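SH3 domain-containing protein: structure tokens wanted.
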Amino acid sequence: MEKANEEITSLIKSYYTALGDKDITTLRTLVDNLAPADESKITNAKYIEGYEAGDIYTKKGLDDDSYVVYSCFYYICQGIDTKVPALAEFYVVKDTDGNWKIDGAAHDDSDEITKYEVSLRQDDDVKELKAKVQKQYEDAQTADPALAAFLDGLGEDVTGSAETADGTTLVVTEDCNVRAAASSDAEVIGGLSAGTEVVKKGENGDWIQIDYEGSEAYVHSSLLEEKTE
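Answer:
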């Protein structure tokens, strides 16, 4: 894992600025194949006021014109002073004009890319980075009870239904993808490492709804088990 070069750093920082501003026009220049569902989710986001990019790292992609990017960042919750540490994973490619862009459809178009990214999550440096950010996330909530309460309540506010805000703590049994909707064909918006704890917010068929970086997301139920003391 290496610190991202100037071009990749600029791309990711511009992405978070546009994301916080809900600037779809700019996001379309930074993300190839930005899905209409993603545009709607960004435009209608209620609880995130902005984003701030942190350290950005890369690993070589499947060819010389691609990178897997690991972006440490913070998101700012509405009415909460403490910034929330988070980690995002992108697949970045060089387009025909020689510009670096986030490939918004990488996982839809290529199982090979998905498998490659999953394999990289077993690397010690990736595991260490994820563990570091996870600890920062937990420490932020410990230091700010208002933040912890806010994050815990997101699922209820999003769904508007107490029945889906189950509140059960589940443990990820193996490294897995997090999807934007309850379908194996839905967009992969991130990943979780084995052992990560999540709170069940609802259920849709074989899929468990969770909160992922402030957004509604889904993990297949076969990859989760109830936490035991």
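The mean pLDDT is 85. The helical segments are 6-21, 24-30, 36-43, 106-109, 111-120, 124-143, 145-159.

Cheers.
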